[in-house]
From TrEMBL:
Keywords: Hydrolase. It comes from the Bacteria. SUPFAM superfamilies: alpha/beta-Hydrolases. This is Alpha/beta hydrolase. Transmembrane segments: none annotated. One of its GO terms (molecular function) is hydrolase activity. Pfam families: ABHD18.
Length: 580
């Protein structure tokens, strides 16, 4: 094979073809019709690698495949210069790539959600499934932790032995385990590098202003999520380790009570400053949009206004197809441990964001501190919230409350006719802090209404008495660090919202599960009663925590109430006389 210069490829009738392409370039790979069915897929690691500098990649095509320009031909040609999606790194089939791009005109509702909401999904909507889901939680968290530790290990240049050491398996290294982990970790490393390649292309396409067709953006987004998911939840490579009970689901690092009270004593006495709205809005950056099932979808990113975080916040925005400029807006927060758009199926997109956008509401899904892209090295999405309890709890509440205030300001500045906040589980707890503390915020950063899903009060009691802290060993770690019920109660000014809401109680809508043992029903109902929320505003389902989540997937009762309240507030504001 003759030498190949950067930016060209060579093809032969037999044997592999080699080419150099700039990372992120799109090219077209075809095979003669007689060979197309017999050639194997391009593997993103086995068939490509860095070459001629970090911005160029060496690509080995399969036998009989010609790399060609848009005019066809098998002679050496220049690779198409359009920057984009690293199709060469991720193609699942040897096809005409332009044809494959054309199929993905918009993002689609994931199959998992279509199944859950179908009649077959009723098989999951049972108490038996609730029990199964609860029992599987430690294993799911363990797998997430293994993924986080593996990601950090690869990034640091570590090996399989490093991974075992970080997971606390240094005392259980049988030869069989070491061999199995070494093989699995090698496969994980390939997945990690494949994700890194496509992420680089994705960043350029969505944030750097590269000119790329919409269908290519859609496909790139889908491929990024799939590649990321293999790293975040590495079931196909390192999943066997999640069965090991000697790997803790949460690597606890509980602060000592005395140190905590020394650090936070003044804040406990005057908590308003910790939850104060930012003095000015941060600078917001907006990504390119892609069409979704209901309308355009894009990302916002901005610097966290909280001194507790000092990182970048991402939020995904779902616009209605028409009237986005004056639509009501709803900011929604997910539950603990959600990986957001680092996985293919992010339920909040499909049970709340897209349905509301289809009905004329702009929805903003915000990324919580320590979650998703904000996860810390060696920590899975949301792990520090539990691992550093109880201090980690109010640190997250305060930071996300301030970040939500900034998003409210952005939404109002961009035309929102009414503004709501809400969330489920952890997101519901944050939302009750926003609804309770916003009375002291500037009017432009206050919400008009709030939705509190599967939430609770008296979080100090939840720390020691919740089923989730017990299942993950957090309650025992908190006690071992010296925390008692009495000491935890002293943190209540930071863990709980104020005794009265900062918005009219009739503008609070809630959903609770009567059998919820993660965020206990009695505690959540007690808060709503103390706030004076009308009983008719509270949906109560005979479900546990996971049952409430599944009910949100399969029923639109809560979504109708949210949208109804937003539209009511919008219509009232339009007919109210201006303030004198």
């Amino acid at each position: 094979m003759p030498p190949i210069s950067a930016g060209t490829s060579s093809a032969t009738g037999s044997g592999p073809s080699i080419g150099l392409v700039r990372a992120g370039s799109i090219f077209h790979a075809t095979a003669p019709a007689a060979q197309r069915r017999t050639t194997r897929p391009i593997n993103p690691i086995r068939d490509m690698g860095p070459s001629a500098g970090a911005s160029w990649w060496r690509v080995a095509f399969n036998e009989g495949i010609a790399a060609r320009g848009s005019r066809g031909g098998s002679e050496p040609v220049s690779i198409a210069a359009r920057p984009a999606a690293a199709w060469f790194a991720c193609s699942a089939q040897i096809t005409e790539l332009r044809e494959e791009m054309g199929r993905n005109r918009r993002l689609e509702t994931p199959f998992a959600h279509r199944l859950i909401t179908s009649p077959l999904g009723a098989l999951l909507d049972t108490r038996a499934f609730e029990r199964i889901k609860g029992r599987s939680l430690p294993r799911e968290m363990r797998l997430a932790r293994i993924g986080a530790v593996a990601e950090a290990t690869v990034a640091e240049g570590g090996d399989a032995e490093t991974l075992l050491e970080k997971l606390g398996l240094h005392g259980a290294r049988s030869p069989q385990l070491r061999r199995r982990v070494a093989k699995a970790f090698a496969r994980y490393v390939r997945d990690w590098h494949a994700h890194a390649a496509i992420l680089k292309a994705w960043e350029g396409a969505f944030w750097s202003g590269e000119d790329l067709p919409t269908d290519a953006l859609v496909d790139l987004e889908m491929r990024r999520r799939a590649a990321s998911e293999r790293c975040v939840t590495p079931g196909r490579t390192l999943g066997f380790l999640a069965k090991r009970a000697d790997i803790a689901p949460v690597a606890c690092d509980i602060p000592h009570p005395e140190d905590s009270f020394t650090r936070w004593s003044e804040t406990i006495e005057a908590p308003d400053a910790l939850f104060a709205a930012p003095e000015e809005l941060p600078e917001f950056q907006r990504s390119r949009a892609v069409p979704g099932p209901a309308g355009p979808e894009y990302l916002l990113r901005f610097r966290s206004p909280s001194p507790l975080m000092a990182d970048t916040v991402h939020a995904r925005v779902f616009e209605p197809a028409e009237g986005a400029e004056t639509a009501p807006a709803f900011i929604y927060a997910s539950g603990l441990g959600m990986a957001y758009d680092r996985i293919r199926y992010w339920p909040e997109e499909d049970y709340i964001a897209r349905p509301l956008a289809a009905r004329g509401c702009r929805v903003i899904l915000v990324e919580s501190p320590w979650h998703g892209r904000r996860a810390l090295p060696d920590r899975f999405s949301g792990e520090p919230y539990l691992a550093t309890a109880p201090v980690g709890l109010f640190r997250l509440y305060a930071a996300q409350a301030q970040e939500t205030a900034a998003l409210i300001g952005w939404a109002r500045r961009t035309g929102a006719s009414a503004l709501g906040v809400g969330g489920v589980s952890l997101g519901g707890i944050v939302s009750q802090h926003v609804a309770g503390r916003c009375a002291a915020w500037p009017e432009a950063m206050r919400p008009d209404m709030a939705f509190l899903g599967a939430t609770s009060a008296h979080i100090d009691e939840v720390v020691l008495g919740s089923e989730i802290t017990r299942a993950l060993g957090v309650d025992a770690a908190v006690r071992a660090a010296g925390w008692t019920a009495e000491r935890l109660r002293k943190l209540r000014p930071l863990l709980d919202p104020p005794a009265s809401p900062g918005i009219p109680p009739e503008n609070v809508v809630a959903l609770l599960g009567r059998r919820d043992r993660y965020t206990p029903y009695a505690l959540g109902r007690g808060l709503l009663d103390a706030w004076g929320v009308p009983p008719g505003n509270v949906l109560t389902w005979d479900r546990d925590h996971f049952g409430v989540l599944l009910g949100l997937f399969r029923s639109d009762d809560a979504q109708k109430r949210i949208l109804g309240k937003l539209n009511e507030i919008r219509d009232t504001s339009r007919t109210s006389p201006p303030a004198q």
